[in-house]
Design goal:
This protein is mainly alpha-helical and 444 residues long. The chain contains 19 helices and no strands. The chain has one domain (42-442): Amino acid/polyamine transporter I (Up-down Bundle).
Length: 444
């Protein structure tokens, strides 16, 4: 039989694609399977959260590192319940609450949630603008905030759902910057391990206050709304794209993919929280810098102590996380309001198809931007946000637990024992945190 000489390559059949390496295929499938959970977890580390974690590290060194381990299973359990509710009901939390509870319950929650989210957006925009001003002092902070607001509005309105989700997923990679910063300075890794796995408790008001702030920052009600709505929209979008109807049946494969997505997202969120506390705890705390009120203070304080590289990475991370978190904040509010009022909404619809949905996003972003013009500083915005989230979080957790255990709503997909135990612990902790928060603000 004739065979070509060795110097002549034998062409491969073009109809058969070359397989990817096994490990590459697995990583690719894992990345493609991530979505709402990853975005939700990453958005929790917004500029407001970075300011809280920076204050924890500056004030108490590594003493609060253990909170990252504590909050991970609690966050994962609550977000998994919200995701499961979204998958099974094909609705967001607001729509489900409207269907199964008196209207005053939903409207009461929205009355507290709307201003809390707007204040949170305002604090994040001001923080991003201030950090950008540090990098480019010639441009005023407010100008940067306006530019970021315009960029976010155009992106949210212009890009279709899948493209926007893809952008948000890649913005999650910005959080990797915070994994680098601690390695730019000397670490006592033995001390890091001790403070991580052996909780430190200080019996004083400042330490209790920072624990309450960490809990309130990591377990926020707006994440519950966003997670459920995004799961519902994700599954509907995929089946519509495949030519199926909008209402679909949930199977074990979808639930397993959701569990992976949520766990990866919450792990990433707490990992970044851990490294921010570690960075400020080993750089600012030993230097005697014990008060950090804003993210620009944290970035500016790092520069003379840890060098330009740490400063630039920290600052870039603040801007990137803001670009990720603000669409989640505004989107959560728009989903909740449009479902409560039965307007057409969703990121898979155009501006003409869902004017109320995108109008809510516009109003929330502009209102957040103008907070500074009304004399509300980022610190005041964070304080008011913490109080409002503190009041609504226990109620939201109780409602999510009730929905997730209601067979009339969830059918065979009600909570298991582990979910109920972790959810009950979350409810107890957040109720105690809310009581302490009110005590610190209005009594002590």
């Amino acid at each position: 039989m004739f065979s070509p000489p060795p110097s002549v390559p034998v062409p491969l059949p073009t109809a058969l694609p070359q397989p990817l390496p096994v490990h590459g295929s697995r990583l690719r499938r894992l990345w493609q399977g991530l979505g709402p959970g990853l975005i939700t977890g990453a958005s929790d580390d917004d500029p407001s959260g970075i300011a809280t974690y920076s204050q924890a590290g500056a004030a108490f060194g590594m003493a609060t590192l253990w909170t990252a381990l504590l909050t991970f299973p609690l966050m994962a359990a609550m977000q998994e319940m919200c995701a499961r509710i979204g998958l099974v009901t094909q609705k967001g939390l607001a729509g489900t609450l409207r269907q199964h509870y008196p209207r005053w319950v939903l409207y009461g929650l929205l009355a507290f949630t709307f201003p809390a989210i707007v204040l949170n957006i305002g604090a994040d925009l001001q923080g991003m603008g201030a950090v950008a001003h540090l990098l480019v002092p010639a441009v005023p902070t407010f100008v940067f905030s306006v530019l970021f607001t315009g960029l976010l509005l155009v992106t949210i309105v212009w890009y279709p759902y899948q493209r926007l989700v893809g952008i948000l997923k890649w913005l999650c990679a910005v959080l990797l910057l915070y994994l680098v910063v601690p390695f730019l300075v000397h670490q006592d890794w033995g001390a890091v391990a001790r403070h991580t796995f052996w909780p430190t408790i200080q019996l004083n008001k400042p330490f209790a206050a920072i624990l309450v702030a960490i809990l309130g920052t990591t377990i926020s009600p707006y994440l519950f709304f966003w997670q459920a709505d995004m799961e519902a929209e994700e599954i509907q979008h995929r089946h519509l794209a495949n030519g199926h109807g909008r209402r679909v049946m949930v199977d074990k494969r979808q639930l397993d993919a959701m569990h992976t997505d949520v766990n990866v997202g919450m792990f990433a969120s707490n990992l970044i929280m851990f490294f921010i506390i570690l960075t400020t705890g080993v750089v600012l705390f030993p230097a005697g810098i014990r008060q950090i009120d804003t993210v620009e203070q944290a970035a500016g304080a790092l520069r003379p102590l840890a060098g330009d590289a740490a400063y630039l990475l920290f600052a870039a991370g603040v801007i990137g996380t803001g670009l990720l978190a603000i669409p989640v904040l505004a989107g959560a509010l728009a989903y909740a309001l449009t479902e409560a009022l039965r307007w057409r909404g969703g990121l898979d619809r155009t501006l003409r198809q869902a004017p109320g949905f995108y109008g809510t996003i516009l109003v929330s972003l502009v209102a957040g931007l103008l907070l500074d013009r009304f004399g509300i500083s980022p610190i005041q915005a964070l304080l008011y946000t913490a109080v409002l989230y503190g009041l609504t979080a226990p109620v939201m957790i109780a409602l999510v637990l009730h929905l997730a255990n209601n067979k009339a709503v969830m059918g065979h997909y009600v909570n298991g024992r582990t979910s109920n135990v972790l959810g009950g612990l979350t409810l107890l902790l957040m109720s105690a945190a809310a009581a302490l928060l009110l005590y610190f603000q209005f009594v002590a």
